[in-house]
Design a protein that fits this description.
The chain is built from eight helices and eleven strands. It is 41% helix and 21% strand. By secondary structure, it is an alpha/beta fold.
């Protein structure tokens, strides 16, 4: 499960991120509303932890924009102000849950887990591109009915690519989403794993699905 945390207080954001990662979530962090909207457009998040008080575009504005775009990503609102009117406004704007600050990290994690679990029940657990399938519950990959053995990191890479088929993914984006790196380690790590994955899902199969765009990145799609 991938969660977006939108919190301008960097210390709080760091605590929340570490608590969620410790429970097995992949976590992205934004510190303002505009970046949050941009991230939600490009990444299929399973849930969003959204602070109301943000610089520039506030959390309620972000929430309204998401719902106007027909996004059904579950949203947990956070606010230092616990007034009933604000809670009602947030829920009316489309929030799925509300947690006042200060909060216990254990409660936040439990609420996020509940939101993402309900979200997962409403969408297919099997990703499919051409005759390649990936079950996100059992982590079982198959192509043309043949079983494909994946390491944990290969699974994360394939799941990331299959959640946005046809989208060009650069090396830095892959490092951020698959390895949780916010820097380039200066190695050919991504290239090595792409090569391993290509050997497993494309060797002996047609059509080829994992494509390299020289100088730009990689994409997974069935060529027309």
């Amino acid at each position: 499960m991938r969660v977006l945390v939108v919190e301008d207080e960097k210390k709080t954001a760091s605590f929340v991120r570490k608590a969620l990662q410790a429970e097995g979530f992949a976590v992205d962090v934004c510190h303002n509303g505009d970046d949050a909207l941009a991230a939600a457009r490009t990444t299929p998040f399973d849930g969003i932890v959204l602070d109301i008080m943000l610089p520039g575009r506030d959390g309620l504005s972000v929430l309204r924009q998401l719902r106007e775009r027909k996004s059904m990503i579950p949203v947990l609102l956070l606010s230092a102000r616990g007034e009933v009117n604000e809670r009602v406004e947030g829920l009316n704007a489309g929030a799925d849950d509300y947690l006042p600050k200060p909060f216990e990290l254990a409660e936040l994690v439990a609420r996020v887990r509940a939101l993402t679990r309900r979200s997962g029940e409403n969408k297919s657990t099997v990703l499919r591109v051409a005759d390649l399938t990936l079950d996100t519950v059992t982590h079982r990959a198959q192509r043309g009915g043949a079983e494909i053995e994946l390491t944990a990191r290969e699974y994360r890479l394939l799941e990331f690519l299959m959640r946005s088929p046809g989208r060009l993914c650069g090396r830095m984006m892959i490092l951020e989403k698959v390895w949780d790196y916010d820097f380039d380690p200066g190695t050919n790590l991504v290239d090595v794993y792409i090569r391993r994955l290509r050997e497993k899902i494309d060797t002996n199969f047609q059509p080829k699905l994992l494509h390299t765009v020289r100088g730009a990145g990689y994409l997974l799609k069935e060529q027309p």
